[in-house]
């Protein structure tokens, strides 16, 4: 999945997988450069194996990949305890830790 320096993030929003995949553009870089040149892959992809970005294709893949890259993150617990706060925009961003946490008054 990686061939060099990489940064990994967990995206939390409604329709996150669909929206992220729109930003990335087509998986095939050649296609992305012509059909969606302003996408991440259209701008920065070098080849189909070096396409600049990755995004899970399903919630199941996302959970599996989160477990690989963030072994201490509990997806089930997040849905049970924090997901509602995100949907209600009741979170704050801790810039020094680069994470969002619930904003409980």
Topology diagram in text:
Elements: H1 16-24, H2 29-35, H3 40-44, H4 59-69, H5 75-81, H6 83-87, E1 91-94, E2 99-102
Antiparallel strand pairs: 1-2
Short summary:
By secondary structure, the protein is mainly alpha-helical. The protein contains 6 helices and 2 strands. A hairpin with a 4-residue loop joins strand 1 (91-94) and strand 2 (99-102).
Structural notes for this entry:
Strand 1 and strand 2 form a beta hairpin. The mean pLDDT is 91. 9% of the residues are buried. This protein has a two-stranded antiparallel ribbon with strand order 1-2. It starts with 15 loop residues before the first helix and ends with a strand. Helices cover 42% and strands 8% of the residues. The protein has 105 residues and is mainly alpha-helical.
